[in-house]
Amino acid sequence: MSRLRQILWFSLRPMVQLWERWIESCQVYGRPHRPKLSGDYMYIQSPTLPLWRSLRAQGQINPDYLLSLFSVHFPPVDVHGIARQLGVIVHHVSNPGWSGAVSSTDTRAEVWLAVGDRPVRERFTLAHELGHLFLHPLGVAYRDAHYEPGTSTIEAQANNFAASLLMPDWMVRVAMQSTGGDVQRLARLFDVSESAMKYRLVNLGLR
Ligand SMILES: [Zn+2]
């Protein structure tokens, strides 16, 4: 391959992959399938607190609530965009020896992600850290190695939050039908690792 072709290939490939995923998403999801969820979806945004803190204070800690709030209808769920809209500050750090960490005060939340992790892993780690932020005591720093099922209760809860945010039950069930349950295709569609998708399918009783 000529040098020019190589440069073109490597610079255009991410765009082509995004395009392919978008096409696939449109094929699978012809129309929005997000269900109307019961319960109170109102919240009051405090003028002094970041959005994540307002939601947490009002008990709005369900991943489906966040998807509803940010009008997410299709995979892949833009977890970085959600973190930004929630007012969570995200940093990247080189060679920290772990994959992610979160720390919070009553009014400020910061997440650190390891540089060089695969994008699918980074997405899951960020969703996992958001789980700690919504579900667990503030003022405590959480530091995470790589995603592993069956760790402590707190870690399992954060993993479950992440899985529900990135692979919502209602999205996965629709995608199952149109992909025939092909894990590779589902993982690509949701922009998650194949192991995370397999684990999610087992948890949802779909495999
Ligand atoms: Zn954790």
Spell out the blueprint of helices and strands:
Layout lengths: L2 H26 L22 H7 L5 H7 L9 H8 L2 E5 L6 E5 L4 E6 L4 H17 L6 E3 L8 H14 L2 H11 L3 H8 L3 H10 L4
Parallel strand pairs: 1-3
Antiparallel strand pairs: 2-3, 2-4
Helix pairs in contact: 3-6, 5-6, 8-9
Zinc ion (ZN) binds next to helix 5, strand 4 and helix 6.
Structure, explained:
The chain has 207 residues and is of the alpha+beta class. The chain is 52% helix and 9% strand. The protein contains 9 helices and 4 strands. Strands 1-3-2-4 form a 4-stranded mixed sheet, with helices on one face. Strand 2 (100-104) and strand 3 form a beta hairpin. It binds zinc ion.
Question: How would a crystallographer describe the biggest sheet?
Answer: 4 strands, mixed
Provide the structure class: alpha+beta
Low-pLDDT runs: none
The topology string of helices and strands comes to HHHHEEEHEHHHH
Task: List the ligand species.
Answer: zinc ion
CATH fold call of the domain at 35-162: Arc Repressor Mutant, subunit A
Per CATH, the architecture of the domain at 35-162 is: Orthogonal Bundle
CATH class descriptor of the domain at 35-162: Mainly Alpha
Q: How many runs of DSSP E, i.e. beta strands?
A: 4
Give the mean pLDDT.
Answer: 87
Helical content class:
40-55%
In short:
With 207 residues, this protein is of the alpha+beta class.
Short key terms for the protein model shown above:
binds zinc ion; four-stranded mixed beta sheet; alpha+beta; 207 residues; 9 helices; Arc Repressor Mutant, subunit A
